[in-house]
Design a protein that fits this description.
It is a single chain. The chain is an alpha/beta fold. It has twelve helices and 13 strands. It has three domains: 3-64, no CATH class; 71-158, no CATH class; 167-350, 3-Layer(aba) Sandwich (Rossmann fold), CATH 3.40.50. Helices cover 39% and strands 19% of the residues. The protein has an eight-stranded mixed β-sheet. It has a three-stranded antiparallel β-sheet with strand order 1-2-3. The protein has a two-stranded antiparallel ribbon with strand order 10-11. Helix 5 crosses helix 6 and helix 8 (160-172) crosses helix 9. The chain starts with a helix and ends with a strand.
């Protein structure tokens, strides 16, 4: 983020942690600063957090992460889910409804709220059909941030985010080598930490590293710190060498790093690296750079979930599935259209 961008919202920032992150990013190399697309969103999100509050972030900031509104639901998700339901006949999704308050109706309108509830019910049934580990019993979304909750059947209340997160866990986690004493997951661009929470619930003892830019880094750090008070947290702080923080990092369950700190993290220390709906929002140079960092750090699997074809006008280019700079020595496990978000693909590679 440019210094001018920070200054344009600086007077509105009351939280010292968020201000410290934004200030630290000003001194980073350009390769680690927000792309033009994310520069605009970062300013918008800072203002939303200050005006509408962290206590409601799942009703505003989160709608720019991987939480879908009515357009995205109708455009490329509800029909594949409905077709799956017609073939499988699981449950009665038409009986689903929003729970707890009228905020969802205010966000989407009365018809939109019904579509949203129907979508979440279909999504729940679709993911539940793959849930061999009882993840919906073990993984719960914290109420922090005021999520939009849906009763999908009597006695069962879920959210869109927990359904997507459990599905991503199911798709990515089987490749982890669990023989290692400490399994470490790296997520670049983690939103508010929804997938991190699912990994922490589903795999006790796992270590989770998040690399991001503010304000998303601030949101995930605050959310996960509040959601997991018993976990040891390595909160973001500047450091000149990894050796200066290595002992604290190794003792922590969840670690938060600024984008420019990734190059100081040690080689081949990550069992699973994850990127979800974020690479297409970077510049071409940034995409190539993060692929190099993933290759350097990962000793296991890279799971990638992005748009089949993305046009980010502010960044000035289009990128499709075939154009990501996958190194020649990576071993492809799969590369396919996503079964739920049909305009997305998902791919997994083993990194030597």
């Amino acid at each position: 983020m440019s210094s001018r961008s920070v200054e344009s919202v600086q007077s509105e920032i009351k939280d010292s942690s968020l201000l410290a992150m934004l200030t630290a990013l000003r001194g980073a190399a350009d390769i680690y600063k927000p792309s033009p697309f994310w520069e605009r969103l970062a300013i918008e999100h800072v203002r939303q957090l200050e005006v509408e509050g962290f206590e409601n972030f799942k009703r505003h900031v989160n709608l720019s992460y991987f939480s879908w509104g009515i357009f995205g639901i109708i455009a490329h998700q509800i029909l594949p889910l409905a077709w799956w339901w017609l073939k499988s006949g699981h449950g009665n999704p038409a009986a689903a409804r929003l729970v707890g308050d009228s905020a969802g109706t205010r966000l989407f309108g009365s018809l939109g709220a019904r579509i949203y509830a129907l979508h979440v019910a279909l999504l729940y049934q679709r993911v539940l059909s793959q849930d061999r580990e009882g993840l919906f019993e073990r993984c719960r979304e914290a109420p922090i941030g005021n999520p939009i909750r849906v009763q999908v059947k009597p006695g069962v209340v879920v959210t869109q985010d927990i359904c997507n997160s459990i599905h991503e866990y199911i798709q990515s986690s089987p490749f982890i080598d669990r023989s290692r004493t400490a399994t470490r997951v790296l997520e670049i661009g983690a939103g508010y930490g929804r997938l991190a929470a699912t990994f922490l619930d589903a795999s006790p003892g796992i270590k989770y590293w998040i690399v991001d830019i503010p304000p998303a880094l601030y949101v995930s750090q605050r959310y996960l710190s509040e959601a997991y008070p018993a976990k040891k947290i390595f909160a973001f702080k500047p450091f000149a060498r990894f050796a200066d923080v290595e002992a604290d990092v190794n003792q922590s369950d969840i670690c938060f790093f600024m984008s420019n700190q990734i190059e100081m993290l040690p080689d081949k220390t990550v069992d699973l690296s994850i990127c979800i709906s974020n690479l297409h929002e970077m510049t071409k140079e940034q995409i190539a750079h993060y692929f190099k960092q993933i290759d350097r750090m990962t000793r296991g699997i890279f799971y990638n979930k992005q748009w089949m074809r993305s046009i980010t006008k502010e960044n000035g280019f289009t990128i499709s599935r075939e154009e990501y700079p996958v190194p020649a020595d990576w071993v492809q496990k799969f590369n396919r259209r996503h079964p739920i978000q049909s305009w997305f693909f998902e791919a997994a590679y083993e990194i030597p």
